[in-house]
Design a protein that fits this description.
The structure holds two protein chains of two kinds.
Chain A lengths: L6 H21 L12 H13 L4 H15 L3 H26 L8 H29 L8 H28 L8 H22 L17 H32 L10 H67 L3 H31 L8 E4 H13 L6 E5 L5 E4 L1 H17 L6 E8 L3 E8 L6 H4 L23 H11 L3 E7 L3 E9 L3
Parallel strand pairs in A: 2-4
Antiparallel strand pairs in A: 1-3, 4-5, 5-7, 6-7
Helix pairs in contact in A: 1-2, 1-3, 2-4, 2-6, 3-4, 4-5, 5-6, 5-9, 6-8, 6-9, 7-8, 8-9, 9-10, 10-14, 11-12, 12-14
Chain B lengths: L2 E5 L3 H13 L3 E5 L5 H8 L3 E5 L1 E2 L2 E2 H10 L8 E5 L4 H7 L4 E4 L4 H12 L2
Parallel strand pairs in B: 1-2, 1-3, 3-6, 6-7
Antiparallel strand pairs in B: 4-5
Classes of the chains: A alpha+beta, B alpha/beta.
Amino acid sequence: MKIKDHYAVMMVALSSIYFVTARFGLSLNAVSGFATLVWIPTGISLAFLLVFGLKYWPGIFIGAFLANLFTGAPLLSALGIGLGNTSEALIGAYLLIKIVDFKNSLERLKDVLGLIIIAAIFSTLFSATVGVASLYSAGVISASSILSTWTAWWIGDTISNLVVAPFILVWMSSKFRLKTSLKKLFEAFVAILFFSFIYLIIFANFLGLPAEKLHFVYLIFPPLTWIALRFGQRGAVLAILVFSSLATLSTLLGQGPFINASPSENLIALQIYMAIISITTMILASITSERERLSKVKDEFISIASHELKTPITTIKGYNQLLFEHLSKHPDKKAIYYSSKLNDLIGYLTRLIADFFDVSKIQAGKLDLQKEIFGMDELVKEAREDIQHLSNVHKIVLKGETKKQIFADRYRIRQVLINLLLNAIKFSPKANKINIFLSSSKREVKIEVQDYGIGISKKDLEKVFERFFQANTNIRQSVSGIGLGLYICSEIIKQHGGKIWANSIKGKGSTFSFNIPLET
Amino acid sequence: MKKILVFEDNAGIAELVEIILKERGFSVKTVENGKGVLRVVKKIKPDLILLDILMPGMKGQEVIKVLKQEQTTKNIPVIIFSALNEIQDIAKNSRADDFLPKPFDTTDLVEIVKKHTSS
């Protein structure tokens, strides 16, 4: 049995932690002796209930009751304060679970907003109000100090739920993995240096800059933004906790920008500062996580969708080919024609799905090239033959050779060439010839595909490689494109360090060319 | 007569592959789930295995690993076929002898099977 399965042990642990942190908090500059500006136990209580379960609430009550009793509160007041502190954590945790379906990792915006509004701002009202009422009715505080005590109490609890609770929640919500890349480790190191440097400027007269000036306080946002964007919510809440602790410590020691007014005013200014830092950084980190997750979900969806679409196409294609073979043995010209049309369309559909997949990969920056060394002549011959099968109207003529080996992604280069050839066929319905020119220099190999088709207007020529671009044509086609093919081609060639371009004369034909550098 | 063992959970594709290969004179046995692959292979002793890498009850890459470690099955060529876009990578990273992306041409299927059974 694990420790966390023992109700009593967990409860004693919670009340002890509460007691110790509460005594520590009360020893620091308490307003009216009880309301303190650094109230760690609130955040711990909330996090404890959210991580281990609401059933541990009595632990909070015992801890709070004893801590206040030992600080000198009358018995009834201590009971009242204990009740207030317990209801704060219980109401906060309960509402978070009920209303936002709270996830401790704080990786969704609604979790962060829930924590801010429900836990930090709302539930803390109970503790402050019940606690101050208890003290007042027992005559511990006078009517004149009700407001200042209440304010200090409420802000102290709010900050705790914004700084302490998130740290515990996030770091307890997933297993800590030490495995990380050296690059990331280095980045973390630089970020920590930057962060420390800014802290020293704001709070420690670093470089002789006057630390008591308020305008330096904004400097903390660049490092925190960096951490939130690159190290997620874990990095964010850790940085918030460390910075808040250091800032509080410096202020208590009389250093930094929050030392010019009365002690409690100084601390309130500091706390508002910490609250704003915590809120903005956590929101930023959660949005970053959401965006990353969204893009992952999108990738997965496209991957699954393309797999699921291809499965039935496999069957349709196969049966159609069987039908075609069967018909060829029992000649029926019309049926053979219909079947071959079907085959073209299935081919088109397959390419379309592959195109969608490629575009999603390109957009995500994940078009990984699988480079190998191969001969360009064979590749071009192979592609020519494959496409020649598809057209009995056009004769595809290969001119020139290179005898060069290139280091590139064979599959992708072939895809580019096939795409250009299919376009050449598609856009030259009345011509009967397509040329492929193959040449090379010391630095590159060049392939050109020339057709004698409808051509492209000058205006459109600039845009043919853009995503979803389609030139206006009058060709009536059984299938029309969606403007992805050339975009994918240009991305593939770009990633190889090559260039792709087009020349065309409207009505005379087009030539699409690309080159691939020979790697030295 | 060469014996081809096909692991394919999609009934439509399984039947199709069976028809195509039987017409070309292969003997075909189809298994529609991935349980106990090694046992099935040892029992049937095929000349070639066509393996859909995504099947309920198994992970294609692991099946290949098991087959290639076993003395009696390691020399049987394994061709993976799948509609997964990453099939080429998977073939490279596993010990599959060849791969066939779906959708395939009947001629490609026949060629690849012939190529690996002729030697």
